[in-house]
Amino acid sequence: MKKVFKVGFGGGCHWCTEAVFMALKGVEKVEQGYISPKENPTNFSEAVIVHYFPGVIELKDLVAVHLDTHRSTENHSMRNKYRSGIYYFKKSDKQTLVDIINEEQQNFDNPLITAILPFGAFKSSEERFHRYYFNDMEKPFCKTHIAPKIKLLKEKYAKHLSSSVL
């Protein structure tokens, strides 16, 4: 049986983030909700936990997708609600993530603001919001905010897209 790894991602609306990662090969499950970092367990922001098979998709590819599908270089007024972060579950993953972010920085004109944080706690969003995009792609929010991210995946990350999802 293949071993499943997990990592948390936050940066934008969790409906968007969930759809992006659900569209990828090698992603077994995406939990949509709110994550807080270990150092501040009551400071939740919208995020997802991605369960993935590293033999199918690598952590560096997940990070690249994440950085490209939210405003990872912008400190905007909604940043507390939508913290740009990657949450690790194993301490050994921290340096790997630092190295990946440093390597990815060359692909951006402005400095990345995405924080690498130890996972603290998770609260699931309401069940009715799970699979938001895939339950009704025609909703105005989906067309306006999520569909452009899926289009970017098709253009830039086609080899990682799951045909069963799209």
UniProtKB/TrEMBL annotation:
Q: Which molecular-function annotation in GO is an example for this chain?
A: peptide-methionine (S)-S-oxide reductase activity
Class of the enzyme per the UniProt entry, highest EC level: oxidoreductase
* Enzyme Commission number(s): 1.8.4.11
- Entries under InterPro entries matching the protein: Met_Sox_Rdtase_MsrA_dom (IPR002569), Met_Sox_Rdtase_MsrA_sf (IPR036509)
Its UniProt entry gives the catalysed reaction(s) as: [thioredoxin]-disulfide + L-methionine + H2O = L-methionine (S)-S-oxide + [thioredoxin]-dithiol; L-methionyl-[protein] + [thioredoxin]-disulfide + H2O = L-methionyl-(S)-S-oxide-[protein] + [thioredoxin]-dithiol
Q: Mind listing the UniProt keywords for this protein, alphabetically?
A: Oxidoreductase
> Which Pfam families did the record assign?
PMSR
Note the superkingdom of the native organism.
Answer: Bacteria
Indicate the segments forming the Peptide methionine sulphoxide reductase MsrA domain, all copies.
7-142
Originating organism: Maribacter hydrothermalis
**Name assigned to this protein:** peptide-methionine (S)-S-oxide reductase
